[in-house]
Amino acid sequence: MKNRRTGNLAAAPHVVWSILFIIAPLLFVLYYTLTDPEGGFTLENISRLFTGNYVLIFLNSLCLALIATVICLALAYPLAYLIASMKQRRQKIVILLIMLPLWMNFLITTYSWMTLLEDTGVINTLLAKIGLDPVHMINTPGAVICGMVFCFFPYMVLPIYSVMAGIDPKLVEAAKDLGCSDAQVMTRVIMPLSLSGVISGITMVFVPSVSTFYISQKLGGGSFQLIGDTIESYFTGTAINFHFGAALSLVLMVLILLSMAVMNRFTDEETAMERRPML
Amino acid sequence: MKKVFSKVYLGLIFLFLYAPLIVMVLISFNSGDSTTQIEGFSLKWYREIFRDHGTLQAFRNTLVLSVLAAVLATVIGTLAAVGIHKMRSKRLRSAVMTVTNIPMMNPDIVTGISLMLLFVFAARMLNLETTLSFYTLLIAHITFCLPYVILNVLPKLRQMDKNLPEAAQDLGCTPLQSFFKVELPFIMPSVWTAMIMAFTLSFDDFVISNFTSGSSYETLTIHIYSMIKKSVKPNIYSLSTIVFFAVLVLLIVYNFTDSADDRRERAIERANLRRERRLRKERGELVEE
Amino acid sequence: MSWLKSKKFLAFLGVTLLCLLLAACAAGGDRDELYIYNWGEYLADGTRGTFDSLEGFQEYYKDLTGRDVKIYYTTYPSNEDMYAKISSGTSAYDVIFPSDYMVERMIREGLLGKIRLEEVCEEYGTECYYDYIEDEFRGLYYDPTDEYSVPYTYGRVGIITNANKVDEEDKTGWDMLWNEKYAGQILQFNNSRDGFATAQYLLGYNVNSTDPAEWEACLEKLLEQKPLVQSYVMDEIYNKMESGEAAIGAYYAGDYFTMLEVNEDLEFFYPEKTNLFVDCMCVPADSENPEIAALFINYMLTRDPAVASAEFIYYASPNSIVYTDEEYIEEMGEDVMEVLYPEDFNFKEELDENGFRDLDPETLQMIADLWEELKISGGMPTHIYVEAAALAVLIAAVCLYFLIRRLRRSRYWE
Fold this sequence. Notes:
heterotrimer; A: mainly alpha; MetI-like fold; 0% strand; disordered C terminus; C: alpha/beta; D-Maltodextrin-Binding Protein, domain 2; seven-stranded mixed sheet; three-stranded parallel sheet; globular
């Protein structure tokens, strides 16, 4: 009984904090969505979402984010496996080296990507030097995806690695003793056990990719609009409209929470809710 | 074969992750004003960055903010993890966990906007001239760091033997003492990683800061983003390069201190093993190996 | 050992609280304060060997009043960002630097306060430098009585071309941004007002029209241009013009010279009709230190900071102290002076005719919608959608596999 009370007491600051700074702000988003600038109730902000190009903008963002997430996963999974099978000491160094680019300002690294990918940029200059044809990369969706993968890649590696490093090697040995081939060990033991890491990796990459706006402006040449750009423009653009901006944010949030909830349905709920450490 | 493949793969990934950083380092030594055309080698942008009060101030602000946000988020988050771990009611626990997950599941821009709307409202209600300040920025950063801390610490708590804190309390510890003497030392490694994670997130944040910063406190990302009309100069690149090498050196140092720790642990392990063998020998048991 | 670790943790906590306390002390205190909100890189602040205007003001203030002033200097990327912060009523600033049309809007909405420059200067016994502002820049449309704003810089938009890529005879005017010969080499503004303006000048419309038909005609024109556009840019234009990635782009006259320093092949000209701007110094209505703000504005008109900032920003200055200063003229050079301060040019008339005015919210919303339509049109290449759809199907299949496995397993255990 006593233990329980101290437990609740320890969580109290967090609970208070969450109510003040997580729940309350979201209620404001809801409030702004359902009101007009005069403060009257309206559903117009929601119905307007289905007019014009907003559906297409959402679709574009979701497509790019999806592709970026899958590429991250495809690259990060084998990498995490490789790192987890290294010597203990090496593991730590490699993980920290993968995290290091995150400490650089992403505005500057995105600029550097621009310098790399341009038609007269570093990569094409190098290609020309070894006698290959130039490749047009900048201002394409591919360049935006590349920028997203770069920015969020470490967030995919970390959770998968930490789960893999936590897998008991005895399990692998046991599977082998029982006659599993290497491929079977992979699909029957390691993959199912690392699923929770994959799920948190997907969350940590997909969510920021959907809402990114700086990367698409710089690497996409501003020729296609993503939802992050649109939301931002309603708060700091030519036509400021907090109410419609809030409606867009709300829909984006609901979309993401829904897709995450669906994904969590398919995996063990307990692990999905309270995942393993990131590092 | 497998080894070669894995080395090549690792190399390619690092090439991808470090290519823009290499560009950044090269441009920071540019003698011209451009951030694309390298004219020659010079250290002038390194001299320049130390004269640029605005950028340096923004950098200091970012450091102070990130350290504070990381530490406070870690304290609140660790306490919360302990609390959640002890909660018996499953429903309460899953409710708290769902709310905790929201800032992580929510796009940055939504978190930033929702907090801004809250602060706007607070300003209207309390009739304040200024609400956006260092403190709102700090609140915002703590808010989005919290879930990462909790999700880091909670699983570690799970791994702990539940009997340990109980044993400590049976032996006369108060719950608080048992927390500091038993639980905290056990979860400390993941508390540290949580703090590093929170620091990283806070240090690199732009979107949320942009919506919640006020007239007295500017972070580095906002400072750089504001150069949008008049172009970024290579001195920002040299600042980033300095940060890059500073972190690299820190990592190396950290690596060495850590290996000292490792050595000590291994020594203890060896000693234990020897003692066990000796005991077994004394008892006349057969010692294998 | 473990005891030590938790002690370390406590020490950390202590340091944190100390930091917080220090931060709190820095925020409070008895000193005079001045909150400046400016464009990024828009004032000589000691970087790149320039004169430090902020430090200079602190000395000036100390001389006048014998007190110290702490300056909080923050920056914004666009008028709209600044307006969003000020109008939300969440932060109080003392000096801001809005452009003409934004000054008009902010005066109308009661967001700006009267500066009372002369009165304040008299009160503090210092010379008022407003007299050096040229007549042409007084009583402009956005502030007919000159009570709310003091002009800081001005300039015009022109077209920048790369001599290696663009033929001399093609340099005709705004229509060269529609010249198919340079497909894929053209840069357009990534900003609705400026972007639409290029089409409006071309079609001979007024940039401040409220007629939806005209705006839609411009959208048609911009849609026609989209396949030729390499990218929609703001600050990226520096990189793209300097490296020769693009051949044609429109930007502000002063910024052209920044690019010219890197790439000598760049050329510049003003089309017949083009956009003009004046960036002003203003004091928000809710400023807590309006007098210090007025002193700062006055200080920025004195020789050293005014010349240094004009050199730093590369835009023209309405301050006669600056453009008659010999050192300044020499530093700028003849070519630059010719472009920045052309003769036979009536700024006031031109601004009335071609400058941006603040528009009503409905028109602004329409512009935003039309701009969005331009950006979204054409969309992404179809293969992106196909790939995304394929991946979505794949993910659904994997999820389904796990679901079935779980169901089977639970049945097995039962």
